[in-house]
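User: For my dataset I need records formatted as: sequence, then structure tokens, nothing else. Please produce one.
Assistant:
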Amino acid sequence: MQRKTLTYLHLPPDADLPDLGARPPFLAIVLAEDEVAEMWLWDVARWLVASGARYVQAWGKDAEAWIEAVDDAALEAVDYEDAPEDQRVLATAHDAGDEDVDEVFWFTKHRAAHPALPLDAVLVVHIASRPRKEAIETAYADA
């Protein structure tokens, strides 16, 4: 098992996107509990890629749309050329009807890996009207 540090970030739908500062490449989990405007979804995908996300897992509402946006943002970031291995972004969608969030957390902790980079940091982007930091951090710790 890889040891990964977890950071929780609550974003209400259509919120301004914070500067994540300088950070090494990371794995992001988008927990989309609320529906969002399509343009904001695409803005978040670009923001994640530009901030250093090199693996994005989406769970919840419109998980497939999140992954489509991340895939496109990753291509856009390299001007639609082949990405060097260290800029390659992996993306997976997890349907809330098929998988519990606990399964996503378990996969993140025990199996998720980038082919060229160590991803020791995990950013949970919780998209919901209300934060659930403690519950989400506990669920991740227990996975």
